[in-house]
Design a protein that fits this description.
By secondary structure, this protein is mainly alpha-helical. It is built from 13 helices and four strands.
């Protein structure tokens, strides 16, 4: 359901509790996976919410653990795209290739553009692309030339393209090509090229925070967008944050 008219993002930012949102780990969603850390995930989070703070803590303990926790947190139903349910299942045997990329980028803070970072993380494993790797980059604390990496999946894009928040209108114009403006909403969301617009997105969120006099951090804005996008249901994008 789309909002009737744009609203200000400020009241939502004031009410949001950073890192507090999450949902329980459901072992049944992962029974077909050779999931690393499944026992720990089950023991800790099958009865308690699995939050962003938990994923950040996993990265502080071990990069490999953080990568796995990022994907489990991001896709609680056990798939990235319901039309390709095997993508995530097939990723686990190759996860160390992605872990090596993350470690390399963590060791070069501020050296790469957001686009270069996403392209590097999208390379190692087929089917693991920007909706997944932007989560990993964010939780890993990877720093790009224009700021810290942020989550950039279909939930975030839906919130921006829907014109839910008045302050994001200029960013929406950057993300949606003029020729795609006549498309139905779902197709318009899918038309956004996540790789080529990741720099615009990071820069746009940071610019908004400067306008708000740094009262809020970029990841707080992203968290509002992520939550708002989950409330927008459209037939063309039927999943829990799949690649778009």
């Amino acid at each position: 359901m789309l909002p009737l008219a744009p609203i200000s993002i400020l009241p939502v930012l004031r009410e949001l509790s950073p890192d507090s949102l999450g949902e329980r780990f459901r072992p049944t969603a992962w029974k077909k996976h050779s999931l690393p850390y499944v026992d720990e995930l089950t023991e800790r989070f099958s009865r308690n919410e699995f939050t962003r703070a938990d994923v950040k803590q996993a990265f502080r303990e071990d990069v490999r653990k953080g990568v796995v926790f990022s994907l489990v947190w991001g896709f609680p139903n056990g798939f990235i795209n319901p039309k390709r349910p095997a993508d995530l299942r097939n990723a686990w045997p190759h996860i160390d290739k992605l872990v090596d990329k993350v470690r390399s980028l963590q060791g070069r803070p501020g050296d790469c553009t957001p686009t270069e970072i996403i392209k590097a993380l999208n390379t190692p494993i087929s089917g693991i692309a920007t909706s997944s790797t932007s989560k990993i980059a964010y939780f890993a604390g990877i720093q790009a030339t224009s700021g810290r990496c942020l989550i950039y999946d279909s939930q975030v894009i839906k919130a921006i393209v829907s014109e839910t928040f008045a302050e994001l209108y200029s960013l929406r114009i950057q993300l949606v090509r003029q020729r795609d403006e006549t498309l139905p909403f779902g197709k318009k969301v899918q038309s956004v090229n996540q790789v080529t617009t990741y720099l615009d997105y990071i820069s746009g969120i940071n610019s908004l925070c400067r306008k708000l006099e740094r009262r809020f951090e970029p990841d707080q804005v992203e968290e509002v967008l992520f939550a708002a996008g989950r409330a927008i249901k459209i037939p063309e994008i039927d999943g829990d944050g799949e690649e778009v």
